[in-house]
Specification:
Layout: E1 2-6, H1 17-26, E2 30-34, H2 49-60, E3 63-68, H3 70-81, E4 86-92, H4 101-120, H5 123-130, H6 146-149, H7 154-164, E5 183-188, H8 192-204, E6 208-213, H9 220-223, H10 225-238
Length: 239
């Protein structure tokens, strides 16, 4: 069994190291952590979310796909574009997009402003500022993986925002019923926004369950890695 791992914005494939260790200790599996376009070894890759889904599936093949935040959105696109390759889905702190066109346009403008900031200030300053986002309020400094995030490039991160940001994404809520593979939706106890989005995802997917990870905010796999792997292993065993 193969488990493919898709990281969030500003992270790289290395962000999954602890999860990979725990998974391979618990189940007979091969893990494939992938650098998404604009990040890590794929910093020079420029593509939208559909292209990012192709990039992910090309690297991992037939697998259970685990995606966090931006990686969750890529994994959703992968399930729609490559249904024979995605055997199961695990979506962590994810969304199917922004419904309202005006809100989507506002988010796109905000992402463009952030992309320009990334291009003009030292990367370390941006990463430090990014990690002060309220989404990461429960993320301890030792789990924030600052050094790994600094492996990215300003140009790559800016392109990721412009091409794969939520503001540019076609909402997928109306297409969730097309995804029939077993799906586990994970959200943090203290992440009210993504708990609500997780409930909506679970309601819209044909075969899904929602699991709320206690004592965690948005980055459940970094804040509570053992509990996250417990949930994934239990899901794999039952599905």
């Amino acid at each position: 069994m193969t488990v493919a791992l898709a990281h969030g914005f500003t992270q790289t494939a290395r962000s999954w190291h602890r999860i990979e260790e725990l998974l391979t200790d618990r189940v007979d599996t091969e893990t494939v952590a992938v650098d998404l376009p604009g990040h890590g070894a794929a910093s020079a890759v420029r593509t939208d979310l559909w292209g990012a889904a192709d990039h992910l599936v090309d690297a991992a093949g037939t697998a259970t796909y685990v995606g966090y935040s931006m990686g969750g959105r890529v994994a959703l696109h992968a399930a729609l574009a490559h249904p024979t390759k995605v055997r199961r889905l695990v979506l962590i702190g994810a969304t199917a997009g922004i419904d309202d066109p005006a809100e989507r346009a506002a988010r796109r403008a905000a992402d463009e402003q952030l992309a320009r900031r990334i291009e003009t200030e030292p990367l370390g300053d941006f990463i430090d500022s990014w990690l002060t986002n309220p989404l990461f309020a429960g993320l301890p400094a030792e789990a924030a993986q600052r050094d790994d995030r600094l492996r990215n490039t300003p140009a790559g991160l800016a392109s990721s925002l412009r091409l794969c940001g939520t503001g540019t994404q076609e909402p997928l809520w109306q297409r969730l019923g097309e995804i029939t593979v077993p799906t586990l939706v994970l959200a943090g106890e203290h992440d009210a926004k993504f708990r609500a989005l997780g409930e909506r995802l679970a309601d819209g997917l044909a075969d899904s369950r929602l699991c709320v990870i206690g004592g965690s905010g948005h980055s459940v796999h970094l804040e509570q890695p053992e509990a996250t792997v417990d949930a994934i292993v239990g899901f794999i065993g039952r599905s």
